Structures are given as C-alpha cells and as structure tokens.
Amino acid sequence: MAGKAWGGRFSEPTNEQVELFTESISFDARLAAVDVKGSQAHARMLAEVGLISKEEADQIQTALDEILIEIQQGKIEFSPSLEDIHMHIESALIARLGDVGRKLHTGRSRNDQVSTDIKLYVRDEIDHLDKLLQQLQRAFVSRDDDLDLILPGYTHLQRAQPVNAVHYWLAYTEKFQRDRERLADCRRRLNFSPLGAAALAGTTLPIDRDQTAKDLGFTAPAANSLDISSDRDYLAELVSSLSLIAIHLSSWAEEWILWCTTEFGFMTLSDAYTTGSSIMPQKKNPDVLELIRGKSARVIAASQQLFVLMKGLPLAYNRDLQEDKLAAFAAIDTIKSCLELAPSIVINAKLNRDKIASRIDDGFLDATALMEYLILRQVPMRTGHEIVGNLVALCESKNCRLKDLSLEEFQKTAPQIDNDVYDVLGAENAVSALRSFGSGGHDSVRHQLKLWQDRLAEN
Ligand code: ARG
C-alpha cells in the first residue's frame, strides 16, 4: 500500500476515520527536536558499526537539521495519514534522500524511538521545572522583611501557637525542596536509554547501544528490551511528583485566599495579580490563586490517567501507550504555567501588619507556652495541660486574655506560678520563648533563613 511506511502487507488503504482516530501528530509534534536528536545519534552509531556509510550518516544528519527547521517554521504540513511526528520526520527524510533516508530506521522501532524521545523531552522539562521551583523558593526566602512580624499558626484552622512570619515562608521552601529532590530522583531513574531495544526483542544487527546511550547523555542503555518497550514508570513517577507540586501549590493558594478575605484580613495581593468583578465594583478577587488551586485538578487527574492507562497492559508495547503523552504533557504544561506566576504573587503580596497585630493576642496562642512554663516548674505535663485548660476557661468566662489574669488568680489555680509568668504570656513572648531546633521562634527562624539564603545563592 503506497504512502504508509508499514504498508507492505496491506492491500486496502486505511479507513480515514481510523487515521483520525489513531493519529498522535496533533499532540506529539512537540517531540520534533528530540526526535531529530535521537535519530542523529542513531545514524552516527549505524555508521560507526558499519551498517551505513559515514557519508550516509552525514547526509541524514544534515537533512534532519533542515527538516527540524522547516517543522519549526511551519513549512511541513502535518497529516493524520502519517500518524505521528516520527513518521512525518522519516517520510520527509525519505522524500529528500531516497534510499539513504530509508536506512535510518535500521535496528530501531518506533517503540524504542518514542520512549527515547519522551525521555529526552521530559529530562529537559525536569531541568526547567527545577529552575522554576528554585525561583519560587527564592521568592519566599526574599521576604526577610517579615522577620519582625508574628503570625498565628493554626491547626484545624483554629488558632494554635504563634510563629515568626518567615516560618511560614520557609515551610513552603522546604516543601518545594522535597519536590525538587523528587524530580532529581525521577530524572536519575529515567536516565537509561531505550534506543536499540527495537520493537520488543532487540535486533540481530550489530548495533552499539552503549554508543547511542552515551551520545544522548544517558547513564547506560536500559537492560531488558521487553521491559523497555512497555515501560512508562518514569512518566507515572514524574507526574506523581508533579501532583505533589500541584498539591503544595494548591494548599498555599488556599491559605492565601483565606488570608485575603475580610474575615482574616492578613494579606493584600498586588493589583496586577488580581482581577475584578463584572457587576460588583468593590471586588478584587484572587483569581490567579484560585486557578492555581483549580488547575491542580488537571495534574492530579493526569497521574490517575497514567496509572489507569498502564495497569492492565501485558508486555510489551501496546498502542494504548500513545495516550501517555496527553497526560504527561497536560501535567507538565499546567505545572509550568502555575510555577511561572507564583513567584511574582509571593514577592508582591503585602501582609497587613496592623490588622494582624491588632488581633495577634486573640485565640490563646500563648496557652502552650504557659503550659510549658509549668512543666519547667516541675508540674507534670498532663497536669499542666489541665491547669491551663482551666485558666483558658476562666478567661473565656471573663472575656479576657491569659495575660490579663492577676497573679492571685494564677496562683489560685497553680501555686507554682510566679510573677515571671508574664514573660511568656502574649503572642510576642510566646514566640520568643520557642527555642527547639526547627521551631517558629525568632532565633530558629533567623538561623534557617540564613541557611536557605546561602543554599539558594549557590547556584
Ligand atoms: N505514536 C505512537 C506512540 O506514541 C507511536 C508508536 C507506534 N508503534 C507501533 N508499533 N504502532 O506510542
């Protein structure tokens, strides 16, 4: 059958609906550059082992360079009848070089070719994502002006204990650091070359897989051709890591959306990163944060899509795997768009210091510090907990704060309490009293901030 690279055994043309149903050119064209890179390495190897001549390899490499430029300039028309980017490039090569072009696919199948391309593509994306995550970390760490500010810390969204405001920024910095490490880990594990696994069994031809692996920057060739042909673990792993980034971004967005409400009143976002309402003139909405939260659904859905896609597949390549790219690309694109916007939002948001300070002594943020004061005076922890619970109840009945109680009132409940109790009461004192490693106390936070500033300045 004319036109199809695989048409030799067919006597009827492919049904047009089938061509439209099976094509992937509409979503895999972005692999053009890595496809060319992989093919050029393959051609160099074929020449090295004597399967094609050196001149033929040179011709192939030059023609592939030209074809890539034409694709990038939109000069090559895509057609569903050529299925995917790999067949488009190969057919353009054959149109140019004739029989020489027909030699490129020697000792290779689209199965190892596709996986090689995806790995090359996601490797670059991982490197880019790492930079974006680093920029976001830098944005949080740049907010060192907030070091003199105290924020309430919450559990169950109820006021819990006070912390230095920068403790919040470093909490996110830590989360994004683990995300970076997960990506680096994923990169390390995926960096084994599929090229030369051919369809599923390897090849009878004397190819040199070590050479192409090295040429393309892989650690080594992957060892089992059957495994390679079916393996998409690396995409599931990558998109799972992206899902965690999405979850981190989404909960950060949720927190700041709450902080921007009149009810919280902690934060004001810059005008440039908010939008208005078509009917309510007063509105300034945190749409970007809401969409960061909303778009996380796409990323999490993509990881589910990959898991479900893979779970029932026998060895080795099955066409189902073509759908992998839709999920992976959606996740990568979405995370990138969120990470590109997030740093500006972080840098430009203003904490409403007066509003925060005016209510920082609400909610008994100092209750735990008071309990620990008792522990340091030999009161057993559970007893101290009970005593402070009673004192809080007393304050609630009197509608006052712990620091408003008189020494007599304190001593009636706990004779161990002295006049120095007032040194740990109030949010400011309670934060200052925090001293453990990793705590939200001022010294601890200043120390951690310095570590992060040095760490992020390094590269
Ligand atoms: N477009 C396909 C994919 O992305 C290419 C592989 C087709 N291989 C095959 N043996 N039909 O997975």
Automatic annotation (TrEMBL):
Signal peptide region: none
EC class of the enzyme, as a word: lyase
A single GO BP: L-arginine biosynthetic process via ornithine
Any GO CC annotation of this UniProt entry: cytosol
The keyword Iron-sulfur belongs to this UniProt entry's keyword annotation: no
Major place of residence: cytoplasm
Enzyme Commission no: 4.3.2.1
GO MF annotation list: argininosuccinate lyase activity
Catalytic activity annotation: 2-(N(omega)-L-arginino)succinate = fumarate + L-arginine
Positions of the Argininosuccinate lyase C-terminal domain: 364-431
A family per Pfam: Lyase_1
Record's subcellular location: Cytoplasm
Gene3D superfamilies documented for this protein: Fumarase/aspartase (C-terminal domain) (1.10.40.30), Fumarase/aspartase (Central domain) (1.20.200.10), Fumarase/aspartase (N-terminal domain) (1.10.275.10)
PROSITE patterns reported in the protein's UniProt record: FUMARATE_LYASES
Keywords, alphabetical: Amino-acid biosynthesis, Arginine biosynthesis, Cytoplasm, Lyase
PANTHER family, alphabetized: ARGININOSUCCINATE LYASE
Protein's recorded name: Argininosuccinate lyase
